[in-house]
Amino acid sequence: MALLEVKDVRKRFGGLQAVDTVSFAVAEGTIKALIGPNGAGKTTLFNLISGFVSPDGGAISFRERQVQGLRPYQVAAAGMARTFQHIRLFPKMSSLENVMVGRHLHGRSGFLASMLSLPRTRREELKAKDKAMELMDFLGIAGLAGTEATSLSYGQQRLVELARALACEPRLLLLDEPAAGLNMRETAEMASVISKIRDMGITILIVEHDVSLVMNISDEIIVLNYGRKVADDVPLAIQKNEDVIRIYLGGDDA
């Protein structure tokens, strides 16, 4: 069953057609990757799905509900979380506090209750802390809980951002270049982590330049070029697709 359906989505910025009538579906419980050359429209498509940009046309359905045009916090509340190509952690906050931010969607205490530190608020905070620590332990970074997040290594910051997204308890996780800036060892560890997250029952849509990583972990792959979908198939078929080889992987005519 499709958890996410994108139908004929379009987006233009001035004279640039960034996304041109793109359609695809992401089946529940799978890892689907989105690849393509620089400027292919991958990040724009991510921004359209997650509510950071509104489409010019087409429809985006998540859990059989149309979400195009919703604000990012509304999309997140519907069960979709994302990370970013450029890490966005809160400075002057510990790693644990950054992860706890992801729990705000599940809090019920209002501003006044928080200001007065009422018992319900304190219980929610303790629950958020326990959940955040559980996720950090799952990702192997529990020992960094008290460390200021922005002082960590790049790979560790990636994991903190990932833990924060998981703290939202998403049904669909959007990963934008999760291996960007990582060395070979860290990339292999990230691939293992992504597969473990899928095994938890979380569906994943990933944009990634590292083709070997994508080929190893994905159930299906979409290839974009100049905003248009070139292919949408299983990894083995993508590897043999002549258009993909020519346009993206560097065939003789590239």
What amount of the residues lies in strands? 15-25%
CATH homologous superfamily identity of the largest domain = P-loop containing nucleotide triphosphate hydrolases
State the secondary-structure class.
Answer: alpha/beta
Overall number of domains: 2
Tell me, briefly, the overall form.
Answer: globular
User: DSSP helix count?
Assistant: 10
Estimate the helix proportion, in percent. 25-40%
Which helices and strands, and how do they pair?
Blueprint: E1 2-13, E2 16-27, E3 31-35, H1 42-50, E4 57-62, E5 65-66, H2 72-77, E6 80-82, H3 95-101, H4 111-116, H5 119-138, H6 154-166, E7 172-176, H7 184-199, E8 203-207, H8 211-217, E9 220-225, E10 228-233, H9 235-240, H10 242-247
Parallel strand pairs: 3-8, 3-9, 6-7, 7-8
Antiparallel strand pairs: 1-2, 1-4, 4-5, 9-10
Helix pairs in contact: 3-5, 3-6, 7-8
Explained architecture:
This protein folds into 2 domains: 1-79 and 170-254, Rossmann fold, CATH 3.40.50; 91-169, no CATH class. It is built from 10 helices and 10 strands. It has helices at residues 42-50, 72-77, 95-101, 111-116, 119-138, 154-166, 184-199, 211-217, 235-240, 242-247; strands spanning 2-13, 16-27, 31-35, 57-62, 65-66, 80-82, 172-176, 203-207, 220-225, 228-233. The strands form 2 sheets. A 6-stranded mixed sheet has the order 6-7-8-3-9-10, sandwiched between helices. The chain has a 4-stranded antiparallel sheet with strand order 2-1-4-5, with helices on one face. The longest helix has 20 residues, at 119-138.
